[in-house]
Fold this protein.
Amino acid sequence: MTLTLPTPRITDAESVPALRWGVIGVGIAGSFVAALHAHTPQRAVAVTSLRPERAAAFAAKHGIATVHPTVDALVADPDIDAVYVATPHPLHHAQALAAIAHGKHVLIEKPIAMSAAEAREITGAGRRAGVLVMEAMWTRYLPQSDIVRQVIADGLIGDVHLVQADFGFVAPPDPAHRLWDPKLGGGALLDAGVYPISFASSVLGAPIAIHAIGATLPNGVDTRAHMAISYSGGGVSLLSTSLETILPIEAQVMGTKGRLKVLSPFFGPTGVEVAVGQFTDVEVATWRDERYPGMYDAMCGEAIAFASYVQDKRTESPLHPHAEVVAVMATIDEVRAQLAAASTPRGA
Ligand SMILES: NC(=O)c1ccc[n+]([C@@H]2O[C@H](COP(=O)([O-])OP(=O)(O)OC[C@H]3O[C@@H](n4cnc5c(N)ncnc54)[C@H](OP(=O)(O)O)[C@@H]3O)[C@@H](O)[C@H]2O)c1
């Protein structure tokens, strides 16, 4: 028997409403807007940033008509349907709430906020206002993630017992960079760790117990975190993140009949390898995502999903419900607390 993988279900970019997007920030937002404009009818129509000259250059590069001087002006723009928040994490909470207060749908870069409490406030405000709030956890909206969901739901790898996932790299220490600055939400967990934690959550649900070890700088920025997490269904995850270690950036799910691996770097469009059987009696099938030349082109997937949810008048993503977004932030809160407690000098 030949092992065949499920076909990913991909929403046609032309089948969803073309939203008018307002963009806050011009860092990763450049990749997002380029992907929108290259692969969908979605359009960025306004932008704002901290430095007006950066916003103006961004607008010229991407053919964006309006540059707003402030976030307040952008969220009040009546010609915008959705706001994309792509600023350092500590700004997400206030900027998302401002967009929601003006009745805008809002896509917020990962992590949605700095804590579960902030995430709860944002998602609650969105629900009350009747607008869509979505974390830009773009991995969820990749075709390979649809294959993973189907492989697990179809029982191809049996009952799932273990998830292993990691995201670590070596970032040159730079106190001015947002990765290293606590005021800008620095640390491995919030920037990279959110991906393996969210992946494990998508497979195993909400944690019941978390054990974390790692390393933290004196200013509180975590540089390494290793987590063993258990879940009510009996599953366990082993997760790692780092700013100073080269990790494989893979995600694996192991069950009673086989295992699957999301190829490196698993957070972006790569592929899925499924192996059924054990020892020398193993069948392997691989699916690769070869749709686009560049990794970030696949960011268009989350925007297409977002527009389809707006069309369906949803206030949350069915692939990433608010309760789960909050639970992932609660996991990060707990891991950060355990690392901070472990690094507190005795008697301090
Ligand atoms: N999905 C992904 O693959 C991905 C990849 C990278 C980052 N991210 C996430 O995206 C977010 C931004 O990261 P980044 O790498 O783009 O950071 P970045 O390169 O530092 O860019 C941040 C942007 O925010 C702007 N900004 C800062 N303060 C602002 C304020 N008060 N009002 C308006 N704009 C302000 C900055 O403006 P100026 O340029 O004008 O100074 C800059 O353009 C983070 O939450 C990160 O986790 C996601």
Q: What stands out?
A: The longest strand covers residues 207-216.
